Amino acid sequence: MGLVHIYTGNGKGKTTAALGLAVRATGRGKKVLMVQFMKSPGVYGEWNTAKIMPGFEIRATGLNCLINADKPEPEDIHAAQEALKMAAEEMASGKYDLVILDEVNVAIKWKLIATEQVLEAVRNRKEGVEVVMTGRYAPKGLREIADYITEMRCVRHPYEKGVLARDGVER
Q1: What is the DSSP letter of 126?
Q2: 128: alpha, beta or left? (left if phi > 0; alpha if psi -120 to 50)
Q3: What does the pLDDT average to over 25-31?
Q4: How far is CA 66 from the centre of its chain?
């Protein structure tokens, strides 16, 4: 069918939910691509899983997750633009059954890419390709085309007590 999902909000679990869907899809023999817009290669645990999970590929395209939201570097904008171009080509190719655009909402919020560019890529995907878009700040334009919208809401998080990201849990 090829529906569109959005996992957004200020709570933990957006990327984790997308990864859960990736596990479920590959368990049914589907091919999955995750394009990580705001993450550098090899930093997160899912990279190790992708190496051993048939049918699951991750491409991290971010140069650094610590981007100045008020004034992103030209290199960060270029990297995000190239990532979206690649993701659009892969969605249109039909090579993958599920394409996850991880942290794409943040890339839009920080003006690395435009909502309209993402909308065009999603609209031009091959019929049957399921798309998941993650990250805080999901813009109205993406919300309007989504079939699923899940908002994660933070009630409590250890970060509030000074606990930093832990391997295997947050990264």
Answers
A1: P
A2: left
A3: 98
A4: 16
Nearest in space to 99 (alpha carbons), one of 64, 124, 74: 124
Alpha carbon 111 to chain centroid distance? 16
Candidates 112, 156, 117, 107; CA nearest to 8 is: 107
Is 0.85 surpassed by the pTM of this model? Answer: yes
Other CB atoms within a 10 A radius of the CB of residue 41 amount to 12
Cα distances (angstroms) measured from residue 44 to each of 38, 94, 135, 144: 12, 27, 16, 31
**The Cα angle at residue 70 between residues 68 and 76, in degrees rounded to 5:** 50
CB 103 within 8 A of CB 38: yes
Is the separation of the CB atoms in 83 and 91 below 8 Å? no
- 153 and 12 in contact (C-beta within 8 Å)? no
The mean pLDDT of the chain is 94
Containing 150, the helix (H) or strand (E) segment is strand 148-152
- Structural domains in the chain, CATH included, are 4-161 (3.40.50.300)
Phi-psi region of 121 (alpha: psi -120 to 50; beta: other; left: phi over 0): alpha
Contact 101, 132 (CB under 8 A): yes
